[in-house]
Design a protein that fits this description.
- The protein is α+β, with helices and mostly antiparallel strands.
- It has two domains: about 100 residues, 2-Layer Sandwich (Phosphorylase Kinase, domain 1), CATH 3.30.200.20; about 240 residues, Alpha-Beta Complex (Aminoglycoside 3'-phosphotransferase, Chain: A, domain 2).
- About 45% of the residues lie in helices and about 10% in strands.
- Strands 1, 2, 3, 4, 5 and 6 form a six-stranded antiparallel sheet that branches. The protein has a three-stranded antiparallel sheet with strand order 7-9-10, covered by helices on one side. A two-stranded antiparallel ribbon has the order 8-11.
- Helix 3 packs antiparallel against helix 7 and helix 3 runs parallel beside helix 8.
- The protein is globular.
- Bound molecules: adenosine-5'-diphosphate, 2-acetamido-2-deoxy-1-O-phosphono-alpha-D-glucopyranose and magnesium ion.
Length: about 350
């Protein structure tokens, strides 16, 4: 269905410069519906926000406005929320009840779906590390938890067990191997949650969704320019941000590669990201966090695979899919990576400690 006219009406609710010339789907996000809006003066990103995933739209937009204002005050390039004509941060369409927001399009940048050059990954590691540093002075109590227990892996495991028990779509028979892969590892999921609750791991303000396409690189220099997709900024662990970046970026293939023969954990990419990240956080990272960096890569990869599998078993209600088996295909790449990481813990730890030595 062509909704262009409806979307044009929504665009009229925002303080845009120029006359709208076109609105088209954009990007590869799994959560929001993203559009590129072109006017005769400027380009914008329009998003229909996902209210199933983020039910508290006011709280979410308040988080984003606070964090982006704070980052701007620190001289960082960040998302620029375009207000509505009524001065609000989003507009709720009366017809479908859905909330929409606009951001200025961050020009002359690229977002990658796969690491093509280790230097790009190193730069993104440094940028996510710096992001963490910049937010260290931000008052976490101002933020609402936009998704409760987002990286609580033991709770993710419980949700997975429930989906297995319900087997709502009759899909379990077709993914027994993957389900068993998770169950066999159920006792490995709690190191970060227990570390946070017993105070061994510090609670920080974290991004929580640090995959490579959530950072924009300069189109000319390929250096990191802006960290985007700020929906999940919440109090969390630095390990979530490190681990999730590795999960996505230290793979030799796309997250939804069907040919598992192409999917490998690349230790050189792990090294590049670690060097970039530690160059930024070496003075704030604790010994416990440093020790758990390799584990966090495994944990976040298992967690994400488990979330894809839970969604597959539950009828694909969370992640956007392009074909019926899409979430199962994604699950398989994650489990392939996790099993290779399990064999590389020692090497990963050596990289982390060697890299830290430079700063002692
Ligand atoms: P989702 O939550 O669905 O992942 P994102 O906010 O990450 O949505 O946006 C999806 C994609 O749109 C990003 O990966 C990026 O390529 C592009 N994008 C988002 N915001 C901007 C922006 N302000 N400027 C340029 N590109 C953007
Ligand atoms: C989603 O929003 P997006 O596409 O950047 C998800 C992440 C997953 C990721 C897997 C809010 O990220 O947690 O790791 O997909 N975001 C949310 O690709 O659930
Ligand atoms: Mg995104």
């Amino acid at each position: 269905m062509d909704c262009t006219k409806e979307y044009e009406k929504i665009a009229e609710q925002f303080c845009l410069e120029g006359k709208v010339l076109g609105i088209e789907p954009y990007g590869n996000g799994h959560i929001n519906r993203t559009f590129l809006v072109t006017t005769d003066k400027k380009r914008y990103i329009m998003q229909q926000m996902n209210t199933t995933v983020f039910p508290d739209t006011d709280g979410l937009m308040n988080n984003i406005c606070l964090v982006t204002e704070y980052l701007k005050s620190k001289g960082e390039e960040t998302l620029d929320v375009i207000p509505t004509v009524d001065g609000k941060s989003y507009f709720r369409d009366e017809k479908d009840g859905k909330p929409y927001r606009f951001y200025a399009f961050i020009e002359n940048t690229v977002s990658y779906q796969i690491v093509e050059d280790a230097e790009v990954f190193r730069s993104s590691g440094e940028a996510f590390g710096n992001f963490q540093n910049k937010l260290a002075g931000f008052d976490a109590s101002l933020l609402v938890e936009s998704i409760k227990d987002f990286h609580n892996t033991p709770k993710r495991y419980e949700a997975f067990r429930k989906a297995v028990g319900d087997d709502k779509c009759g899909r379990l028979a077709g993914c027994q191997v993957e389900a068993e892969f998770v169950t066999a590892r159920k006792d490995t999921f709690s190191k970060v949650t227990s570390g946070l609750s017993n105070g061994e791991i510090p609670l920080r303000v974290t991004h929580n969704d640090t995959k490579l396409n959530n950072i924009l690189m300069d189109a000319v220099t390929n250096k990191a320019r802006a960290i985007i997709d700020l929906d999940t900024i919440m109090p969390g662990s630095m390990l979530y941000d490190f681990g999730d970046s590795i999960r996505f970026g230290a793979s030799t293939a796309l997250e939804d590669e069907k040919d598992l023969g192409k999917v490998h954990f690349d230790i050189n990419l792990f090294r590049a990201y670690t060097e970039g990240f530690l160059s930024a956080v070496h003075s704030s990272i604790t010994a416990k966090e440093l020790e758990l960096l390799p584990y966090s890569a495994y944990l976040l990869t298992m967690e994400c695979g488990m979330r894809f599998l839970t969604d597959y078993l539950s009828g694909d209600t969370y992640f956007a899919i392009k074909y019926p088996e899409h979430n199962l295909v994604r699950t398989r790449t994650q489990f392939r990576l996790a099993s290779e990481m399990e064999k590389s813990f020692e090497e990963m730890s050596k990289i982390c400690t060697d890299c830290m030595k430079k700063y002692s």
